[in-house]
Amino acid sequence: MKPGTRALGIAESYRGGHGTDGTAGHSTLVGCVMSANGVVDDFVVGSCTVGGTDATEAVISMVDRLDRPDIQYLFIAGIAPAWFNILDIEQIAERIDCPTLSVSFAESDGLEPALRRELSERTATARIETYRRQPTRHRIQAGTGSLFVRAAGDIDSIAEVVRAFCSEGETSSPRPEPLRVAQLAARGVDNWRRTERS
Description:
Elements: E1 6-13, H1 22-25, E2 26-35, E3 40-49, H2 55-66, E4 71-77, H3 81-84, H4 89-96, E5 100-104, H5 112-118, H6 121-132, E6 138-142, E7 145-152, H7 158-164, H8 177-197
Parallel strand pairs: 1-4, 4-5
Antiparallel strand pairs: 1-2, 2-3, 5-7, 6-7
């Protein structure tokens, strides 16, 4: 992959309950634009509702506001940010016209049991329908560790794309660098918002 190939990584920071008041009701999202050679050249901030259904639109809005046609891949941390605010990565990839990868960092039997346990039957059913529409997870070996990736859009080699954006120094817990930096930035923004509100 060319060193100048750019990806946008979007990660969240959220701590607290799933209430409806200002601090507890929203999760901070940050996007980091980074090239495959590790150069960061843009950020975007957004939010989605904790326990809501607006994460897909929030991600699309962030990409639109960046207005960066040079972004060739979108990485998103996880598939259900902000307490089961399920992402529709097929819809995201289609709307932004960019290959989209949902990356998780641990093995899982899936979200359906948790959705049924934590949500009302009607709410769980609707979110499970969205969840089931998403692409199958693939285990990707990077360094001495593994990532679990769902990919939507036109991607020749999911593994090649993921490895191109993982730091060579990472071993047992590999993480694409745009996501790592986005996560750090999201925590910083979240901490600042909490300080401003207190």
